[in-house]
Design brief:
The structure holds two protein chains of two kinds. By secondary structure, chain A is α/β, with parallel strands linked by helices. Helix content of chain A is about 45%, strand content about 10%. Chain B is about 55% helix and about 10% strand. A five-stranded parallel sheet of chain B has the order 2-1-3-4-5, sandwiched between helices. Classes of the chains: A alpha/beta, B alpha/beta.
């Protein structure tokens, strides 16, 4: 596979293109043309698609998009481009097993296919959501780790250190990033799972300098840095600097891309093609061990709308049928802790992701827009659903997801944000309130009674 | 030669059908056919771009269509504006907005959506881009004779920079000159109130409605 150094060379001397031309003349026109050429059309009746041929056409369109458009580097106003031979060689690369974690928590990340009987990887966290104190962070991570289905952690981010509001770019960001890692590791030690991998180094960091500072205090070779592209098909020097550091350090990378449905990627069909194209960007440019996508609705800011579920489903299938770089799906739901709606939304996106060949990272709740509006229950429930739908046929999953959409879809514009962590969980001992236990218990029972999902394991909350 | 009314209809249809490359030539055709520049603006470009804005609000078209429509509008205006000025008129915007993502924040998409929607609603918009320091917002707002400063922050750690702009305005004694709007993923109405903004827009449509309400004297 082409080296990262060659990629950097191309970032420095690739074809010069203005930002506007890249967006409007190159990306938008190419992806629209490809959607027509490859007959990619959104079908609202199949939020979980069962069409293998459609999946393969989306993959081919994604490859062509990547080859024709390349990757834009705003710092140099140039494009990184690749030849067809380089892409084919990368796809044929025998990477070997993708391993995370150490000691008893060392595991291989599964390369799943649609309807695969292999259990998915479940990473638990808050989708980078913000908490107001180190105590919140410590308590949450301890609770994530109490779940035996949790195979890696994504830490929340901190808004404060020592009572001071973290300001991006300031020394407080560096300190917040270090504190995030130190407290994350300490929480895992307290939970008795010190080898559980952290895969979103570093949640409180906005800039490469803080990522690098924080990583030194908690990200090792069996953990991962989370490094993202920008909307759409763009990678800046800050991200490339993180990659350079991570590769030298020997850690791994969760390559993140939240394609915005309604943004430059356009509608569902073109968003699916762009998401598939990102698999190659993540492989060749960000040097990922996983692709970490979250196709998100531009207005509602969730990944649980009908059209984003369809994108999730078809893109997962396109990628998992054609690439060795596995998908770790991240989800954002509209409703917040203690609401039934958050659990319904969670069940929908996790089902769509897992039966389509993906693994999961769960999850941001209340649109990740409110500090402390998070809890360990929703990600726990996500891992239960993920295991419950393993091996399910996509046609059956489609009916489940449509029934779930019937329950929550109309309420997405005004999704209830629920309550704060400290109002639904005892931060000292992790006990959730009786009220939340009741809501969780009710929805969990409904999943079996109304939606036909059989849970594999007893719940730690009942 | 096409009938004058047909040309106006074709301009509107070019907007709604996404044939944005056709718009400037159609404007030229209209002028060649003897249409009044003000008439082309009022009965062709304005209803055309407004219809695109309405479709965007209904999620029938997306950001690329909005941006291409705004580009096409600008290309049309390049032909019309000199003629309107010659006739003693001026295509006045409904208001002027300086906007950008605050210092430390490099997220541009939400800001771009707001900028484009403000443009299609008749505002003149100066987009300062991303990672914009506080004093630059104010310097540019003064030069641009802005009515509104709109500040985007997509991270909890960049939200304090929105407050920084308000503090810089206060330090210069310019706070009352501008209507300050904030938005972005983690921002809330409570935050806007706490940090001293005038308004919070949860969505791009909110931002446009708030801006219109302000220039129409409703705030």
């Amino acid at each position: 596979m082409i080296s990262f150094r060659d990629v950097v060379d191309r970032a420095l001397d690739g074809p010069i293109t203005s930002s506007k031309d890249f967006d409007l003349r190159l990306l938008v026109r190419t992806v629209r043309r490809l959607a027509k050429e490859y007959d990619v059309q959104y079908d609202p009746e199949t939020p979980v698609s069962g069409d293998d041929e459609l999946a393969d056409r989306i993959w081919q369109a994604g490859v062509e998009l990547f080859l024709e458009v390349g990757v834009y580097v705003p710092d140099t106003e140039r494009r990184i481009t690749f030849s067809r031979d380089e892409v084919e060689l990368a796809l044929a690369y025998n990477r070997g097993p993708i391993l995370f974690g150490s000691g008893v928590d060392r595991r291989e990340f599964p390369l799943r296919k649609p309807e695969d009987p292999t259990p998915p990887w479940c990473s638990l966290g808050a989708g980078g959501g913000a908490v107001s104190s180190e105590f919140h962070l410590l308590s949450l991570i301890r609770e994530y780790a109490r779940n035996p289905l949790c195979w890696s952690i994504t830490t929340p981010s901190l808004t404060h250190v020592d009572g001071r509001l973290i300001v991006a770019g300031s020394p407080l960001e560096v300190e917040g990033s270090i504190r995030n890692m130190v407290m994350g590791r300490e929480a895992l030690r307290q939970a008795g799972r010190p080898g559980l991998p952290i895969v979103n180094g570093v949640a409180s960091a906005a800039h490469a300098s803080s990522h690098i500072a924080g990583a030194g205090f908690g990200i090792g070779p069996t953990d991962a840095m989370e490094i993202g592209a920008h909307h759409e098909m763009r990678v800046d020097f800050d991200s490339l600097n993180k990659v350079a550091y991570t590769l030298s350090r020997g850690s791994q990378i969760w390559a993140e891309n939240g394609v915005i449905l309604g943004g430059m990627a356009g509608g569902p069909a073109t968003t699916a093609i762009v998401t598939a194209g990102y698999n190659l960007l993540d492989m060749l440019v960000l040097r990922g061990s996983t692709q970490h996508p979250f196709p998100i609705h531009f207005d509602l800011r969730t990944t649980t709308t009908r059209d984003t579920l369809w994108v999730r489903s078809v893109a997962n299938q396109a990628i998992s049928r054609n690439s060795w770089l596995p998908v770790a799906n991240l989800g954002y739901v509209g409703a917040g802790p203690t609401t039934e709606m958050a659990l319904y939304e969670t069940a929908a996106w996790v089902t769509a992701a897992v039966v389509s060949g993906g693994s999961i990272e769960a999850e941001g709740v209340a649109k990740n827009a409110h500090v402390d509006y998070t809890s360990p229950v929703e990600p726990y429930f996500a891992s239960e659903i993920a295991h419950a739908v393993v091996g399910m046929r996509r046609q059956e999953a489609n009916e489940v997801v449509k029934a779930l959409l019937d329950v929550y879809e109309a309420r997405l514009p005004d999704a209830p944000i629920g309550v704060r962590l400290q109002d639904c969980m005892n931060l000292e001992n992790g006990e959730i309130t009786p009220e939340y236990r009741e809501v969780y218990s009710k929805v969990r029972q409904e999943m079996t009674a109304k939606f036909g999902l059989e849970f594999k394991y007893p719940s730690i909350y009942l | 030669m096409a009938h004058k009314d047909d040309i106006l209809q074709q301009i509107m249809e070019a907007f709604t059908e996404g044939e944005f490359d056709e718009i400037q030539p159609l404007v030229q055709q209209g002028l060649d056919a003897g249409l009044d520049p003000d008439g082309i603006l009022d009965n062709g470009l304005i209803p055309g771009i407004r219809e695109v804005g309405e479709r965007f609000r209904r999620s029938e078209v997306y950001l690329p269509e909005m941006m291409m429509a705004a580009d096409a509008w600008q290309e049309g205006m390049e032909l019309l504006e000199p003629l309107i000025s010659e006739q003693g008129g001026k295509a006045e915007p409904v208001g002027r907005v300086v906007l950008g993502a605050v210092k430390g924040d490099i997220h541009s998409l939400g800001k771009n959506i707001v900028a484009t929607m403000l443009g299609t609603a008749g505002f003149e918009v100066l987009d300062l881009g991303v990672d914009v320091r506080a004093s630059k917002f104010i310097d540019e707002a003064e030069g641009f004779k802005a009515d509104i400063i709109a500040l985007s922050a997509l991270m909890t750690t960049t939200m304090p920079q929105q407050r920084d702009v308000v503090e810089h305005l206060l330090a210069r004694g310019s706070r009352d000159k501008y209507y300050v709007m904030v938005g972005g993923g983690p921002t809330t109405a409570e935050w806007a109130q706490e940090m001293g903004a005038d308004a919070f827009g949860e969505t791009a449509a909110d931002a446009v409605n708030l801006a219109l309400a302000h220039v129409e004297g409703e705030t």
